[in-house]
């Protein structure tokens, strides 16, 4: 088992080179085909236009997005021309409210989606629905990569957040090729339940499962000494000098079709290493 189709999405020229470099490094590692979507985004909220708004205004925003898409695709081809490997590129225009659906349609047929962090200074509002589209509707694992780090292929030390949830188990299975290639996988269990079948051996069943796949796993049981789980995980990443986090992605459907849950959002805001997510 491996990854043979890697998808990435570019919507911002400032993030284009780093996003493509990271995605290309992953594709090269797994001898995979890299697909790039270059989207010009119409960020206007059409619902706020007054009745009878001039159609010329709407057309202008679409024309601007089309121009952005063409420029992004041109810059992406230049960058892709500097790397070895198989790749393809497609350009298009999407409205902000609909971009997640477009990404999901392509993510469904990708083995992994590599994307920049959706939160931070001067990050476009479209980056969050792009991540959500790949994760929730697209049902693909998403690797979110900080811009500042150097592109890498296979992590040597991985921190795996484990809470026995269906999302965490899905992330384990989706990340199995990565876990097998790592030198050490630190399975992090935070405040395991005092009652239940696994209370005397937290993470034991998962460790057995991983070992049968040839994964060198260690169980790290931690106490919740900080208010947020993401803070504990990030601190442990530094303690063990890990270069990737694998965890389940959690979502709510109260206000939108899918919105990243608090623990997932906090992790993506603070992470200084790539975060592999599955839902």
How does this structure look, described?
The protein is an alpha/beta fold. The chain contains 9 helices and 12 strands. A 10-stranded mixed sheet has the order 3-2-1-4-5-12-9-6-7-8, sandwiched between helices. It has a two-stranded antiparallel ribbon with strand order 10-11. α1 packs across α2.
Query: What is the tally of beta strands?
Result: 12
The biggest sheet amounts to: 10 strands, mixed
Unreliable segments (pLDDT under 50, ≥5 consecutive)? none
Order of helices and strands, N to C? EHEHEHEHEEHHEHEHEEEHE
Question: C-alpha Rg, in Å?
Answer: 20 Å
**Number of helices in the DSSP assignment:** 9
Features:
alpha/beta; 38% helix; two-stranded antiparallel sheet; 279 residues
Topology:
Layout: E1 5-10, H1 13-29, E2 33-42, H2 55-80, E3 87-95, H3 99-107, E4 112-116, H4 127-137, E5 142-145, E6 157-161, H5 166-174, H6 176-181, E7 184-190, H7 204-212, E8 217-222, H8 229-239, E9 244-248, E10 251-252, E11 259-260, H9 262-270, E12 275-278
Parallel strand pairs: 1-2, 1-4, 2-3, 4-5, 6-7, 6-9, 7-8, 9-12
Antiparallel strand pairs: 5-12, 10-11
Helix pairs in contact: 1-2, 3-4, 8-9
Quick structural summary:
With 279 residues, the protein is of the alpha/beta class.
């Amino acid at each position: 088992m491996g990854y043979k189709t890697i998808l990435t999405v570019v919507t911002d020229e400032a993030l284009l080179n780093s996003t493509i470099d990271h995605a290309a490094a992953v594709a090269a590692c797994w001898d995979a085909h890299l697909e790039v979507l270059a989207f010009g985004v119409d960020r206007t909220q059409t619902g706020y236009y007054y009745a009878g708004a001039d159609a010329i205004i709407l057309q202008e925003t679409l024309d601007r997005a089309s121009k952005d898409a063409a420029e992004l695709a041109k810059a992406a081809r230049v960058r892709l021309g500097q790397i070895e490997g198989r790749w393809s590129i497609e350009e298009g225009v999407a409205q902000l409210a609909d971009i997640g659906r477009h990404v999901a349609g392509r993510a469904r047929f990708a083995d992994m989606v590599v994307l920049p962090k959706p939160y931070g200074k001067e990050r476009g509002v479209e980056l969050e629905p792009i991540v959500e589209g790949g994760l929730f509707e697209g049902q693909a694992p998403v690797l979110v990569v900080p811009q500042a780090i150097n592109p890498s292929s296979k992590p040597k030390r991985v921190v795996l957040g484990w809470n026995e949830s269906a999302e965490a188990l899905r992330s384990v299975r989706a990340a199995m090729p990565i876990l097998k290639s790592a030198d050490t996988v630190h399975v992090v269990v935070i405040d395991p339940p005092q009652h239940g079948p696994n209370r005397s051996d937290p993470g034991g069943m998962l460790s057995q499962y991983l070992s049968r796949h040839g994964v060198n796993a260690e169980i790290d049981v931690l106490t919740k000494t900080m208010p947020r789980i993401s803070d504990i995980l990030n601190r442990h990443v530094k303690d063990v000098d890990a270069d990737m986090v694998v965890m389940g992605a959690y979502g709510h459907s109260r206000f939108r079709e899918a919105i990243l849950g608090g623990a997932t959002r906090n992790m993506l805001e603070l992470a200084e290493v790539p975060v592999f997510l599955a839902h």
